[in-house]
């Protein structure tokens, strides 16, 4: 998806001023209690599940109707980040405003993308790169350390195409054509996202579980007296993730390799877990992510997939709707192709487990 940093040109001066303003702000007064600040309410909910009732958790982006692509940090939020005992964020350039504010300040941070890269579990066969050597799969680098501490202006690592879950065997991933140059009809590769990996890593339950464990470790260092409490809550949260995986495993076993279409690669890790094949033309997804109009050829390729009923479901991001995606949805509904609505932030009234369980169940229903 488009880097949030690319959306902040108009507010860069405001962020700089906010950082300067917060330099003199209150910092580490233990009597104020522990405060965690998360970039989105997704990571905020994970943090709450681990932290318990005695730790304050604040999420900067919590509006379920908000589009994180165009999010603008405020001076007050910048101050909140600066004063936090622990900052939990997505990384991978998705919420780069966090790094711009707290980078180089020695803050304790948990970076989900870094953690995903450091997870050495085998997820199975990787997506095939084009034979002409022009594949655009990301080349991940290892995180600087195991705890996501901030180290200033270090280059941020990229997320792997899919290398952070438990072994699911030899998953059959979509194969790009031998002459793939990212043309209008070329299926999008599962891990591709602007040369730094698919940032929507909160759709990978294995990474989310690892993030919970890292939050517990950081809190245990901040508050040693409750270290075991944090570890126990993280373990309980991670155990609940197994219910989501059970649904995707069932899809993979009963309906493997089902072709689907996404308006953008938001639920890619969910699709990988279910062994679904993303048939979305690369050029179409790229344009939607960039906030530009897809070419007529890309739109025609999508139309052909839908009208020819070459896909079993449309995965539709309701937070980044525009005329193009609305037209795609209308085509899918006219063709009786199920539409699975997904979001980037937590909907109101549910927690992470409930949200991702509902997403997995909706996908299962669509592919049944």
TrEMBL record:
<comment type="similarity">
    <text>Belongs to the bacterial solute-binding protein 9 family.</text>
</comment>
<feature type="compositionally biased region" description="Basic and acidic residues">
    <location>
        <begin position="161"/>
        <end position="171"/>
    </location>
</feature>
<feature type="region of interest" description="Disordered">
    <location>
        <begin position="116"/>
        <end position="198"/>
    </location>
</feature>
<keyword id="KW-0732">Signal</keyword>
<feature type="signal peptide">
    <location>
        <begin position="1"/>
        <end position="17"/>
    </location>
</feature>
<dbReference type="GO" id="GO:0046872">
    <property type="term" value="F:metal ion binding"/>
</dbReference>
<dbReference type="GO" id="GO:0030313">
    <property type="term" value="C:cell envelope"/>
</dbReference>
<feature type="compositionally biased region" description="Basic and acidic residues">
    <location>
        <begin position="133"/>
        <end position="154"/>
    </location>
</feature>
<protein>
    <submittedName>
        <fullName>Zinc/manganese transport system substrate-binding protein</fullName>
    </submittedName>
</protein>
<dbReference type="GO" id="GO:0007155">
    <property type="term" value="P:cell adhesion"/>
</dbReference>
<dbReference type="InterPro" id="IPR050492">
    <property type="entry name" value="Bact_metal-bind_prot9"/>
</dbReference>
<dbReference type="InterPro" id="IPR006127">
    <property type="entry name" value="ZnuA-like"/>
</dbReference>
<dbReference type="Pfam" id="PF01297">
    <property type="entry name" value="ZnuA"/>
</dbReference>
<keyword id="KW-0479">Metal-binding</keyword>
<dbReference type="GO" id="GO:0030001">
    <property type="term" value="P:metal ion transport"/>
</dbReference>
<keyword id="KW-0813">Transport</keyword>
<dbReference type="InterPro" id="IPR006128">
    <property type="entry name" value="Lipoprotein_PsaA-like"/>
</dbReference>
């Amino acid at each position: 998806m488009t880097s949030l940093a690319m959306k902040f040109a108009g507010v860069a001066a405001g962020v700089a001023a906010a950082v300067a303003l917060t330099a003199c702000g209150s910092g580490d007064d233990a009597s104020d209690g522990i405060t965690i600040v998360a970039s989105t309410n997704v990571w905020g909910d994970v943090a709450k599940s681990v932290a318990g009732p005695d730790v304050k958790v604040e999420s900067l982006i919590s509006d379920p109707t908000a589009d994180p692509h165009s999010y603008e940090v405020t001076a007050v939020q910048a101050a909140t980040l600066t004063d936090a005992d622990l900052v939990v964020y997505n990384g991978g350039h998705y919420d780069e405003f966090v790094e711009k504010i707290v980078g180089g300040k020695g803050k304790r941070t948990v970076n989900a993308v870094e953690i995903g890269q450091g997870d050495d579990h085998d997820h199975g066969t990787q997506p095939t790169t084009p034979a002409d050597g022009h594949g655009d799969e990301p080349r991940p680098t290892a995180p600087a350390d195991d705890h996501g501490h901030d180290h200033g202006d270090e280059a941020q690592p990229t997320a792997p195409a899919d290398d952070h879950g438990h072994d699911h065997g030899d998953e059959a991933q979509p194969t790009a054509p031998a002459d793939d140059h990212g043309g209008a009809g070329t299926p999008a590769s599962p891990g591709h996202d602007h040369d730094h990996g698919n940032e929507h890593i909160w759709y990978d339950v294995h990474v989310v579980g690892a993030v919970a464990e890292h939050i517990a470790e950081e809190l245990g260092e901040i508050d040693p007296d409750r270290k075991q409490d944090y570890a126990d809550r993280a373990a309980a949260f991670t155990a609940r993730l197994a219910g989501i995986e059970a649904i995707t495993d069932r899809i993979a076993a009963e309906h493997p390799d089902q072709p689907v279409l996404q308006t953008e690669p938001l639920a890619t890790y969910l699709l990988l877990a279910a062994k679904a094949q993303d048939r979305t033309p690369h050029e179409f997804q790229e344009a939607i992510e960039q906030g530009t109009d897809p070419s007529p050829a890309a739109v025609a390729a999508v139309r052909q997939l839908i009208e020819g009923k070459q896909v079993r479901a449309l995965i539709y991001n309701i937070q980044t709707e525009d005329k193009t995606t609305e037209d795609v949805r209308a085509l899918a509904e006219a063709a009786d192709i199920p539409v699975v609505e997904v979001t980037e932030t937590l909907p109101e009234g549910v927690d992470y487990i409930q949200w991702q369980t509902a997403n997995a169940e909706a996908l299962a229903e669509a592919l049944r």
